[in-house]
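Researcher: For the annotation table, I need C-alpha cells for Transposase. Please keep the output clean. Sequence:
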Amino acid sequence: MNIDEVTDELYGLAPSDFVGRRNRLATAAKGDGNRDLARQIAALRRPTQVGWAINQWVRTDPDGVAALLDLAAELLAAQRRSSADRLRALAAQRQELVADCVESVRRTADANGVGLSDNAIRDVGQTLRAAVADDEIADVLRRGRLVTAAEYSGFGPAGVFLVPEPAGDDQAEGEPDAEPEDSSASSTGIVDSERLDRARAALADAEAAERDAEGTVRKRDGDVVDARQRADELTEDLERLRAELEQRDAEVRFARRQVETAEEQRRGAADDLDDARRRVDRARTALTRLERQN
C-alpha cells in the first residue's frame, strides 16, 4: 500500500464513505509501523460534491478528459506562437467543449444517484475552464483527485493572453539574467575576510533557524492532521448520534401511542368489569330472593 494507491481509491469513493475508509487505512498503516504513510493518508481531505462529481467523470469518461486537456495544450501552443486567429478559434472551441464536458459530469453524477444544483454545475464549468488554463489544476483533474472547485485567476490560454517568443536564442528560455558583479569585488578581486566570516555566520544562523522552523512546521502538520482526523471522527459520531436520536424519537412517539391505546383499552376493560359486577350483583339478588321464597 502506498499513498498513490490510497489516494486513487479514496477519491473514487462517495464522500459519505471517504472519512471512514480513510481513517481505517490510516490506522492500518500506523499499525504496520508506517507512521509517515499514516500521516499522509490522514491528511487527505474529503472532496466536496463538485470535486467528487468531476472525479467520477474522470474515471468514466477518459475520452472527454483527453479532449479537454488536448485543447489546453493547443491553446498553450497558439499562445506561445502569438497566433491571435488560432487563439480565437480555439477559444470558441473551448466554450463548446467545456459545455459538453459539464453536461457529461452532470450525467455521471445523475448515474450515481446525485443531482447537481445550478450552483454546483456552475462550479464544475469554472473548474474545467481553470484546468484548461492551469497545468497544476489540469494534473489534479487528470488524476481524478480534486477536493473542491477550482478557479483560475491568472493570465494564460483561458484569457487568450499573448506571450511573445524570446527575442533571441543567446539566453535559454526561463534562464534568469546574470546578476551584476559587485563593483568593489571586480575591481580588487578580494573579499574582506571579516565580511566573509560575518556572512558565513549569518548563513549558519539562518540555516539553524530554517531547521528549527521546519521542525516546528512538521510538528504543526502533525497537529493539524490529528485535529482534522479528530474533527472528522466527531462529525461522524455526531451524524450517527443524530440518526440514533431521530430513531429514538420515533420509537418514543410510537411508545406513547401504545400507552394511549393501552389506556383506552384499559378504560374499556374497566367499563366491562363494572358491567360484569353489576350483573353479578343482580344475579345474587335474584338468587337470594328465590332461596327465600323456597
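Researcher: And a one-line annotation?
Model: The chain has three domains: 1-46, 48-159, 210-294.
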